[in-house]
Amino acid sequence: MQLTIQEVEHIAELAKLELSDAEKEQYREQLSSILEYAANLQNVDTGDIPPTASVLPEQTLLREDVVLEALSPDSVLQNAPQKKDQQFKVPIVMENGQ
Amino acid sequence: MSQLTELTITQALALLQSREISSIELTQAYLDRIQEFEPQIKAFITLTPELALQQAKAADLRLKNNTGDNLPALLGLPIAIKDVLAIKDIRCTCGSRILENFVPPFTATTVQRLLDAGVVVLGKTNTDEFAMGSSTENSAYQTTRNPWNFEHVPGGSSGGSAAAVTSQFAPVALGSDTGGSVRQPASFCGISGLKPTYGRVSRYGLIAYGSSLDSVGIFAHNAEEIAIIFQHIAGRDPKDATSMEIPVPSISLSENGSLQGVRIGVPKEYFIAGIQAEVDSAVRSAIAQMEALGAEIVEVSLPHTEYALPVYYLIATAEASANLARYDGMRYGYSAESATLWQRFKDTRGSGFGSEVKRRIMLGTYALSAGYYDAYYGQAQKVRTLIKRDFEQVFEQVDAIATPVAPTTAFKIGDHTNDPLAMYLEDIFTLPTNLAGVPGLAFPVGFDHQGLPIGMQLLGPHFKEETLIQMVHAYQKNTNWHLHKPNLESCR
Q: CB distance B310–A46 less than 8 Å?
């Protein structure tokens, strides 16, 4: 299983990671060998085996719908890189009608 | 008064309650020892001496003014916390530059329960970045040293907590275990470490890595101490939907040191070629000793063990790639200066995350991506079912399973840093536990020729931590491996 640089770039784009050329080459090699190692999973017959949804017995715990104490807006915003009027401030998401 | 740091927590709590010692004295003894040896060991990312002394002073006041017997059970006891658990108003880095200045506005439930029980927080301990690693070498801040030999790793990812307890910087510490991150460092450092059942202990305030695998665990010098802390942190928490509504037993420990009536399974898949010979023989000796104490030993089989490593690294990284999507530089954490939104995401994450974290995000993203989902993530979740069934079948025959914790003793710093796969192989004996969600308790059973500790683990059925703790307690009643402590002076 050998990944190409284009595949590495595609994964990095999906994961929103800016990588240097050296990192791309390093990850290409390392991910290729890890995926090669993982390929032996294909040898396991899992025909009628369900995927694990949870390791625990099912539990559905309900609670009363009551108002509880929550974090204050100030404390939620205390780590914000940029904020304005008790809101997170972010770069423009859409411009020119796009 | 350095001998205060030699006390077990049972002894320390008795002396505090009888007011023969004060919490200030006890806390100061640990702070003095930290000051002396922390520059070599590097166990902590953040120390909180002022907070600790303030909490100790408050504890002393309550102990002094006490007229009844309703004081919190752990009042005045110092503790260290892995830097993946949030404590309100104390920086929480998760070993990452991306959270270098993150100050949580809330406290993890496990920590809050201990604070309610009266503990004193000494500081936040080192970890591989986002708990991804087996040595603390992936920490963005420092590599913690193994207190038995400073050229070796303490294990990971909770290596800071393990080294802190081993170095007697704190009598107990909390860690987290997603694929062995409590048990493997406990083994490398020669102390005891519990990974509870998935769903037994709240993860509210634990920074997420692999959500179907993560659990909060405990480090201490022996099983009795682990029992005390476990009973405080375990149990249903409405803030964690995966925490189960199952009563936590009051764990009674027998003083007779017998294992009569207990059946222990030894899985052949864990005693394989490539395992360090001294690890193999020390673990077999410990099993023989348990037999001598009355346990019945039977050979068992967990046939899908060999697939645990690829299953783990596909599932854990897939979950990590989703969990770590939240680090976008908008609400908290490091934020790049780039002008446009999409470029800011990429630059923030590209330079905020370290190499191993990016590697795992990439692997997990690939395993979940269109065209590969069924072959990788889907198949891994099916094989996980087989691994879980292996455990269920064996636990129909035995009370516990005994295995080595890791194939080797603590490796040298730098030995595996260029080969991620070799590093991942260090975890082969601990990963299946997390995939099956069962509890595991690691404890020391010997030393190799270099004087490095050897650990073994007992694994039990879901929610049977009590059995594991009782069995290790019986073993520790008859052996003294857990009493050995490194001489930090001689390592310098």
A: no
The shortest CB-CB distance from A49 to any of B342, B355, B382 is to B382
CA distance B150 to chain A (A): 29
**B85 in Cβ contact with B206 (< 8 Å):** yes
- Angstroms from B319 CA to nearest CA on chain A: 13
Q: Quick one: chain A helix, strand, coil %, rounded to 5?
A: 40, 5, 55
Chain A residues touching residue B311 (CB < 8 angstroms): 41
CA distance A8 to A35: 13
Please provide the distance, in angstroms rounded to a whole number, between the alpha carbons at the two ends of chain B: 22
Q: What is the pLDDT of residue A35?
A: 93
User: pLDDT for B347-359, tens place per residue?
Assistant: 999 999 999 999 9
Is beta strand B453-459 parallel, antiparallel or unpaired with respect to B440-447? antiparallel
Per-residue pLDDT band for B140 (boundaries 50, 70, 90) equals: very high
Catalytic residues of B: 82, 157, 181
Query: Residue length, chain A?
Result: 98
Inform me whether the C-beta atom of residue B365 falls under 8 Å from chain A C-beta atoms.
yes
B2-263+403-491 is classed CATH 3.40.50.1970: no
Could you tell me which chain A residue has the CA closest to the CA of B353? Answer: A17
Q: Which residue in B199, B335, B421 is closest to A56 by CB distance?
A: B199
Coil, strand or helix: which one is A70?
coil
Q: Do B362 and A15 touch (CB under 8 A)?
A: yes
CA B481/CA B473 separation, integer angstroms:
12
Strand spans (E) along B163-317: 173-177, 192-195, 215-220, 263-267, 296-300
Round to whole Å and give the CA distance between B84 and B275. Answer: 31
Helix axes B277-292, B465-478, angle to 10 degrees: 90
Q: Where are the alpha helices (H) located in B108-255, listed in sequence order?
A: 109-116, 159-166, 183-189, 223-233
CATH of domain A5-42: 1.10.20
Give B165-202 pLDDT, tens digit per residue: 999 999 999 999 999 999 999 999 999 999 999 999 99
List of chain A residues whose C-beta atoms are within 8 Å of the C-beta of residue B307: 40-41, 44
Structure tokens that stand for B135 in this block: 């040595």
The ipTM (two decimal places) reads 0.95
- Residues B269-280 pLDDT 10s: 999 888 999 999
Instruction: Select the residue of B349, B365, B437 nearest A56 (Cβ to Cβ).
Output: B437
* Domain residue ranges of chain B, discontinuous segments joined by +: 2-263+403-491
* A37/B310 Cβ within 8 A: yes
Q: What's the average model confidence in pLDDT over B36-54? A: 98
pLDDT of residue B1: 44
Q: Where are the domains of chain A?
A: 5-42
